[in-house]
Protein backbone atom coordinates (compact mmCIF):
# COMPACT_ATOMS: atom_id res chain seq x y z
CA UNK A 1 0.00 0.00 0.00
CA UNK A 2 1.36 3.41 -0.96
CA UNK A 3 0.46 6.10 1.57
CA UNK A 4 1.54 8.94 -0.71
CA UNK A 5 -0.65 7.63 -3.52
CA UNK A 6 -3.62 7.46 -1.16
CA UNK A 7 -2.96 11.01 0.00
CA UNK A 8 -2.72 12.32 -3.58
CA UNK A 9 -5.85 10.51 -4.71
CA UNK A 10 -7.80 11.80 -1.74
CA UNK A 11 -6.49 15.30 -2.37
CA UNK A 12 -7.63 15.17 -6.00
CA UNK A 13 -11.01 13.86 -4.91
CA UNK A 14 -11.30 16.69 -2.36
CA UNK A 15 -10.38 19.23 -4.99
CA UNK A 16 -13.15 18.04 -7.28
CA UNK A 17 -15.84 17.11 -4.77
CA UNK A 18 -15.53 19.13 -1.56
CA UNK A 19 -18.79 20.73 -0.52
CA UNK A 20 -18.67 24.46 -1.03
CA UNK A 21 -19.28 25.49 2.58
CA UNK A 22 -18.85 29.22 3.24
CA UNK A 23 -16.10 28.85 5.86
CA UNK A 24 -13.92 26.76 3.54
CA UNK A 25 -11.27 27.69 0.96
CA UNK A 26 -9.86 30.62 2.90
CA UNK A 27 -13.06 32.65 2.86
CA UNK A 28 -13.52 32.88 6.63
CA UNK A 29 -11.40 34.43 9.35
CA UNK A 30 -9.96 32.08 12.01
CA UNK A 31 -12.78 33.21 14.29
CA UNK A 32 -15.32 32.26 11.61
CA UNK A 33 -13.69 28.84 11.26
CA UNK A 34 -13.90 28.34 15.02
CA UNK A 35 -17.59 29.29 15.03
CA UNK A 36 -18.26 26.80 12.22
CA UNK A 37 -16.53 24.02 14.14
CA UNK A 38 -18.43 24.72 17.36
CA UNK A 39 -21.74 24.82 15.49
CA UNK A 40 -20.93 21.57 13.63
CA UNK A 41 -20.11 19.57 16.75
CA UNK A 42 -23.58 18.09 17.14
CA UNK A 43 -25.17 19.23 13.91
CA UNK A 44 -24.66 18.30 10.26
CA UNK A 45 -22.56 20.86 8.39
CA UNK A 46 -25.18 21.38 5.68
CA UNK A 47 -27.70 22.37 8.38
CA UNK A 48 -25.21 24.72 9.99
CA UNK A 49 -24.71 26.90 6.88
CA UNK A 50 -27.70 29.29 7.26
CA UNK A 51 -27.08 29.68 11.01
CA UNK A 52 -23.38 30.35 10.49
CA UNK A 53 -24.06 32.86 7.71
CA UNK A 54 -26.57 34.85 9.79
CA UNK A 55 -24.36 34.63 12.87
CA UNK A 56 -21.24 35.93 11.13
CA UNK A 57 -23.17 38.77 9.51
CA UNK A 58 -24.46 39.81 12.87
CA UNK A 59 -21.28 39.18 14.91
CA UNK A 60 -18.32 39.05 12.51
CA UNK A 61 -15.67 38.84 15.21
CA UNK A 62 -15.18 37.78 18.81
CA UNK A 63 -15.62 41.28 20.22
CA UNK A 64 -19.00 41.74 18.53
CA UNK A 65 -20.23 38.44 19.97
CA UNK A 66 -18.78 39.22 23.39
CA UNK A 67 -20.84 42.42 23.55
CA UNK A 68 -24.11 40.88 22.30
CA UNK A 69 -27.08 40.48 24.67
CA UNK A 70 -27.35 36.87 25.87
CA UNK A 71 -30.98 36.61 24.78
CA UNK A 72 -30.01 37.48 21.19
CA UNK A 73 -27.24 34.89 21.20
CA UNK A 74 -29.59 32.15 22.44
CA UNK A 75 -32.23 33.17 19.92
CA UNK A 76 -29.74 33.18 17.03
CA UNK A 77 -28.57 29.68 18.00
CA UNK A 78 -32.07 28.63 16.92
CA UNK A 79 -32.50 24.92 16.40
CA UNK A 80 -28.82 23.98 16.29
CA UNK A 81 -29.32 22.01 19.49
CA UNK A 82 -27.39 21.84 22.75
CA UNK A 83 -27.83 25.61 23.32
CA UNK A 84 -25.30 25.75 26.15
CA UNK A 85 -22.77 25.75 23.31
CA UNK A 86 -24.00 29.23 22.37
CA UNK A 87 -23.21 30.60 25.82
CA UNK A 88 -19.84 28.84 25.92
CA UNK A 89 -19.04 30.35 22.54
CA UNK A 90 -19.88 33.79 23.91
CA UNK A 91 -17.63 33.15 26.94
CA UNK A 92 -14.90 32.13 24.52
CA UNK A 93 -15.49 35.34 22.54
CA UNK A 94 -15.08 37.42 25.71
CA UNK A 95 -11.70 35.85 26.47
CA UNK A 96 -10.50 36.27 22.86
CA UNK A 97 -11.65 39.90 22.81
CA UNK A 98 -10.20 40.82 26.18
CA UNK A 99 -7.08 38.67 26.53
CA UNK A 100 -6.03 38.38 22.89
CA UNK A 101 -7.08 41.76 21.45
CA UNK A 102 -9.82 40.11 19.40
CA UNK A 103 -7.41 37.81 17.54
CA UNK A 104 -7.69 34.07 17.97
CA UNK A 105 -4.50 32.66 19.55
CA UNK A 106 -2.48 30.29 17.36
CA UNK A 107 -1.11 27.69 19.76
CA UNK A 108 -2.76 24.46 20.83
CA UNK A 109 -2.34 25.21 24.54
CA UNK A 110 -3.85 28.68 24.24
CA UNK A 111 -6.75 27.42 22.14
CA UNK A 112 -7.63 24.52 24.45
CA UNK A 113 -7.56 26.92 27.41
CA UNK A 114 -10.45 28.89 25.87
CA UNK A 115 -13.95 28.17 27.25
CA UNK A 116 -15.63 25.31 25.39
CA UNK A 117 -12.67 24.55 23.12
CA UNK A 118 -11.41 20.96 23.28
CA UNK A 119 -8.82 18.93 21.42
CA UNK A 120 -10.85 18.52 18.25
CA UNK A 121 -11.82 22.18 17.80
CA UNK A 122 -8.33 23.45 18.65
CA UNK A 123 -6.75 21.05 16.15
CA UNK A 124 -9.31 21.88 13.47
CA UNK A 125 -8.72 25.62 13.88
CA UNK A 126 -4.94 25.17 13.80
CA UNK A 127 -5.13 23.10 10.64
CA UNK A 128 -8.01 24.69 8.71
CA UNK A 129 -7.57 28.32 9.77
CA UNK A 130 -3.82 28.62 10.43
CA UNK A 131 -2.48 25.91 8.12
CA UNK A 132 -0.47 24.25 10.90
CA UNK A 133 0.58 20.61 10.60
CA UNK A 134 -1.48 18.84 13.25
CA UNK A 135 -3.60 15.70 13.20
CA UNK A 136 -7.31 16.49 13.45
CA UNK A 137 -9.19 13.61 15.02
CA UNK A 138 -12.95 13.40 14.85
CA UNK A 139 -15.37 10.50 14.44
CA UNK A 140 -15.24 10.60 10.66
CA UNK A 141 -11.46 10.67 10.48
CA UNK A 142 -11.12 7.87 13.02
CA UNK A 143 -13.54 5.72 11.03
CA UNK A 144 -11.80 6.25 7.69
CA UNK A 145 -8.28 5.72 9.02
CA UNK A 146 -9.24 2.62 10.93
CA UNK A 147 -10.98 1.10 7.93
CA UNK A 148 -8.40 2.00 5.30
CA UNK A 149 -5.18 1.28 7.18
CA UNK A 150 -6.16 -1.27 9.84
CA UNK A 151 -9.03 -3.02 8.07
CA UNK A 152 -11.26 -2.88 11.13
CA UNK A 153 -14.29 -0.88 12.17
CA UNK A 154 -13.74 2.07 14.49
CA UNK A 155 -15.98 1.29 17.43
CA UNK A 156 -16.58 4.77 18.87
CA UNK A 157 -15.96 5.81 22.48
CA UNK A 158 -12.96 7.89 23.49
CA UNK A 159 -10.05 8.19 21.07
CA UNK A 160 -7.52 5.49 21.92
CA UNK A 161 -3.74 6.10 21.99
CA UNK A 162 -3.47 3.71 19.02
CA UNK A 163 -5.94 5.78 16.99
CA UNK A 164 -4.06 8.98 17.84
CA UNK A 165 -0.76 7.36 16.88
CA UNK A 166 -2.26 6.21 13.57
CA UNK A 167 -3.58 9.70 12.80
CA UNK A 168 -0.15 11.21 13.54
CA UNK A 169 1.65 8.57 11.49
CA UNK A 170 -0.52 9.09 8.43
CA UNK A 171 -0.39 12.90 8.48
CA UNK A 172 1.59 13.93 5.38
CA UNK A 173 4.77 15.96 5.69
CA UNK A 174 4.36 19.61 4.82
CA UNK A 175 6.10 20.40 1.60
CA UNK A 176 4.12 23.26 0.19
CA UNK A 177 2.82 22.57 -3.27
CA UNK A 178 3.05 25.40 -5.75
CA UNK A 179 3.53 28.37 -3.44
CA UNK A 180 6.07 29.91 -1.12
CA UNK A 181 6.07 29.47 2.63
CA UNK A 182 4.93 33.05 3.29
CA UNK A 183 1.56 32.30 1.76
CA UNK A 184 0.95 29.38 4.06
CA UNK A 185 2.32 31.24 7.07
CA UNK A 186 -0.22 33.97 6.39
CA UNK A 187 -3.10 31.52 6.21
CA UNK A 188 -6.00 32.87 8.21
CA UNK A 189 -4.84 36.46 8.27
CA UNK A 190 -7.26 39.14 7.16
CA UNK A 191 -5.10 39.71 4.09
CA UNK A 192 -5.15 36.02 3.26
CA UNK A 193 -8.92 35.94 3.55
CA UNK A 194 -9.28 38.89 1.17
CA UNK A 195 -6.76 37.46 -1.29
CA UNK A 196 -8.45 34.10 -1.23
CA UNK A 197 -11.95 35.35 -1.78
CA UNK A 198 -13.47 33.14 -4.40
CA UNK A 199 -15.18 34.61 -7.37
CA UNK A 200 -17.41 32.08 -9.05
CA UNK A 201 -16.16 28.92 -7.40
CA UNK A 202 -13.57 27.11 -5.35
CA UNK A 203 -9.90 27.90 -5.76
CA UNK A 204 -7.31 25.23 -6.23
CA UNK A 205 -5.37 24.35 -3.12
CA UNK A 206 -2.23 24.93 -5.18
CA UNK A 207 -3.26 28.55 -5.59
CA UNK A 208 -4.21 28.87 -1.96
CA UNK A 209 -0.88 27.44 -0.87
CA UNK A 210 -2.62 24.84 1.24
CA UNK A 211 -0.29 22.47 2.99
CA UNK A 212 -0.60 18.72 2.35
CA UNK A 213 -1.48 18.03 5.99
CA UNK A 214 -4.39 20.49 5.77
CA UNK A 215 -5.68 18.93 2.57
CA UNK A 216 -5.29 15.51 4.15
CA UNK A 217 -7.29 16.42 7.27
CA UNK A 218 -10.05 18.01 5.24
CA UNK A 219 -10.25 15.28 2.61
CA UNK A 220 -10.29 12.38 5.08
CA UNK A 221 -12.95 14.12 7.15
CA UNK A 222 -15.03 14.87 4.06
CA UNK A 223 -14.71 11.29 2.81
CA UNK A 224 -16.02 10.09 6.16
CA UNK A 225 -18.93 12.54 5.99
CA UNK A 226 -20.16 11.81 2.47
CA UNK A 227 -18.68 8.47 1.22
CA UNK A 228 -17.26 6.37 4.04
CA UNK A 229 -20.27 6.80 6.28
CA UNK A 230 -20.83 4.76 9.43
CA UNK A 231 -23.62 2.48 8.28
CA UNK A 232 -23.64 2.56 4.47
CA UNK A 233 -20.22 3.38 3.02
CA UNK A 234 -20.35 3.98 -0.74
CA UNK A 235 -17.36 1.81 -1.55
CA UNK A 236 -18.31 1.67 -5.26
CA UNK A 237 -17.62 5.39 -5.61
CA UNK A 238 -14.75 5.67 -3.13
CA UNK A 239 -11.53 7.14 -4.57
CA UNK A 240 -9.31 4.94 -2.38
CA UNK A 241 -11.27 1.68 -2.59
CA UNK A 242 -8.32 -0.11 -4.23
CA UNK A 243 -6.19 0.50 -1.15
CA UNK A 244 -8.80 -0.02 1.56
CA UNK A 245 -7.97 -2.88 3.92
CA UNK A 246 -11.52 -2.90 5.30
CA UNK A 247 -13.04 -3.45 1.87
CA UNK A 248 -10.46 -6.13 1.06
CA UNK A 249 -11.38 -7.93 4.29
CA UNK A 250 -15.08 -7.97 3.33
CA UNK A 251 -16.06 -5.06 5.61
CA UNK A 252 -16.09 -7.09 8.85
CA UNK A 253 -18.43 -5.80 11.56
CA UNK A 254 -19.69 -2.92 9.41
CA UNK A 255 -21.57 -0.37 11.53
CA UNK A 256 -20.78 -2.02 14.88
CA UNK A 257 -20.22 0.47 17.63
CA UNK A 258 -18.92 0.25 21.17
CA UNK A 259 -21.11 3.05 22.40
CA UNK A 260 -24.80 2.68 23.03
CA UNK A 261 -27.17 3.86 20.31
CA UNK A 262 -28.33 7.44 20.64
CA UNK A 263 -31.25 8.09 22.92
CA UNK A 264 -34.45 8.78 21.02
CA UNK A 265 -35.36 12.45 21.02
CA UNK A 266 -39.11 12.04 21.53
CA UNK A 267 -40.08 12.48 25.16
CA UNK A 268 -36.59 13.35 26.36
CA UNK A 269 -35.57 16.31 28.50
CA UNK A 270 -33.80 17.64 25.40
CA UNK A 271 -37.14 17.84 23.64
CA UNK A 272 -38.83 19.57 26.58
CA UNK A 273 -35.98 22.06 27.03
CA UNK A 274 -36.14 22.75 23.29
CA UNK A 275 -39.87 23.47 23.49
CA UNK A 276 -39.40 25.95 26.32
CA UNK A 277 -36.57 27.75 24.56
CA UNK A 278 -38.48 27.81 21.25
CA UNK A 279 -41.46 29.45 22.99
CA UNK A 280 -39.20 32.10 24.54
CA UNK A 281 -37.41 32.79 21.26
CA UNK A 282 -40.71 33.60 19.58
CA UNK A 283 -41.50 36.39 22.04
CA UNK A 284 -40.56 40.02 21.37
CA UNK A 285 -37.19 41.01 22.86
CA UNK A 286 -37.34 41.25 26.65
CA UNK A 287 -40.88 39.82 26.89
CA UNK A 288 -41.89 37.31 29.55
CA UNK A 289 -43.74 34.04 28.95
CA UNK A 290 -46.46 33.81 31.65
CA UNK A 291 -46.01 30.72 33.83
CA UNK A 292 -49.47 29.41 32.96
CA UNK A 293 -48.54 29.50 29.25
CA UNK A 294 -45.25 27.76 29.97
CA UNK A 295 -47.11 25.04 31.87
CA UNK A 296 -49.09 24.24 28.72
CA UNK A 297 -45.96 23.36 26.77
CA UNK A 298 -45.66 19.80 28.13
CA UNK A 299 -48.10 17.42 29.76
CA UNK A 300 -45.74 15.89 32.34
CA UNK A 301 -45.53 18.80 34.76
CA UNK A 302 -42.80 17.22 36.89
CA UNK A 303 -40.55 16.73 33.87
CA UNK A 304 -41.38 20.24 32.64
CA UNK A 305 -40.52 21.83 36.00
CA UNK A 306 -37.22 19.94 36.12
CA UNK A 307 -36.35 21.06 32.62
CA UNK A 308 -37.19 24.69 33.38
CA UNK A 309 -35.00 24.50 36.49
CA UNK A 310 -32.13 22.99 34.49
CA UNK A 311 -32.42 25.71 31.82
CA UNK A 312 -32.21 28.28 34.61
CA UNK A 313 -29.15 26.50 36.10
CA UNK A 314 -27.48 26.59 32.68
CA UNK A 315 -28.07 30.34 32.39
CA UNK A 316 -30.27 29.88 29.33
CA UNK A 317 -33.43 31.35 30.89
CA UNK A 318 -34.46 33.46 33.86
CA UNK A 319 -37.30 32.48 36.17
CA UNK A 320 -39.30 35.49 37.33
CA UNK A 321 -42.27 35.67 39.70
CA UNK A 322 -44.79 35.67 36.89
CA UNK A 323 -43.06 33.65 34.22
CA UNK A 324 -39.94 32.95 32.19
CA UNK A 325 -37.75 34.96 29.87
CA UNK A 326 -34.44 34.74 28.04
CA UNK A 327 -31.55 36.21 30.04
CA UNK A 328 -30.77 39.86 29.54
S1 LIG B 1 -13.61 1.53 0.26
FE1 LIG B 1 -15.46 1.71 1.48
S2 LIG B 1 -14.83 1.31 3.60
FE2 LIG B 1 -12.97 1.72 2.40
S3 LIG B 1 -12.60 3.92 2.70
FE3 LIG B 1 -13.78 3.70 0.83
S4 LIG B 1 -15.95 3.91 1.47
FE4 LIG B 1 -14.70 3.52 3.30
UniProtKB/TrEMBL annotation:
EC identifiers of the protein: 3.2.2.31
One of the entry's Gene Ontology molecular-function terms is: oxidized purine DNA binding
Q: Please state the span of the N-terminal signal peptide per the UniProt entry.
A: none
Q: Write down the Pfam families for this protein, in alphabetical order.
A: EndIII_4Fe-2S, HHH, HhH-GPD
Q: CDD domains per the record?
A: ENDO3c
Q: Looking at the keywords, is Cell membrane present?
A: no
Can you state which reaction this protein catalyses? Answer: Hydrolyzes free adenine bases from 7,8-dihydro-8-oxoguanine:adenine mismatched double-stranded DNA, leaving an apurinic site
Q: Which Gene3D superfamilies match?
A: Helix-hairpin-Helix base-excision DNA repair enzymes (C-terminal), Hypothetical protein, domain 2
Q: Which InterPro entries match?
A: DNA_glycosylase (IPR011257), Endonuclease3_FeS-loop_motif (IPR003651), Endouclease-III_FeS-bd_BS (IPR004035), HhH-GPD_domain (IPR003265), HhH_base_excis_C (IPR023170), HhH_motif (IPR000445), MIG/MutY (IPR044298)
One GO term of the biological process aspect: mismatch repair
HhH-GPD domain: residues covered:
39-182
Name of the top EC class for this enzyme: hydrolase
Whether Ribonucleoprotein counts among this entry's keywords is no
Q: What is this protein called?
A: Adenine DNA glycosylase
Say which species the protein is native to: Bifidobacterium longum subsp. longum
Amino acid sequence: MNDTAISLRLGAWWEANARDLPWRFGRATPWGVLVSEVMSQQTQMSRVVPYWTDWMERWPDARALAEAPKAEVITAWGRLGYPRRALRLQECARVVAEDYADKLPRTYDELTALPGIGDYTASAVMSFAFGERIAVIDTNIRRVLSRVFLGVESRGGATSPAERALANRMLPKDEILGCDADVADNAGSAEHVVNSTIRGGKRSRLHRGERPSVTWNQSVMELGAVICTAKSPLCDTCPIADDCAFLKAGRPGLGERRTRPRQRFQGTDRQVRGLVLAALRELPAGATLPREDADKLWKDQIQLAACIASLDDDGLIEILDGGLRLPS
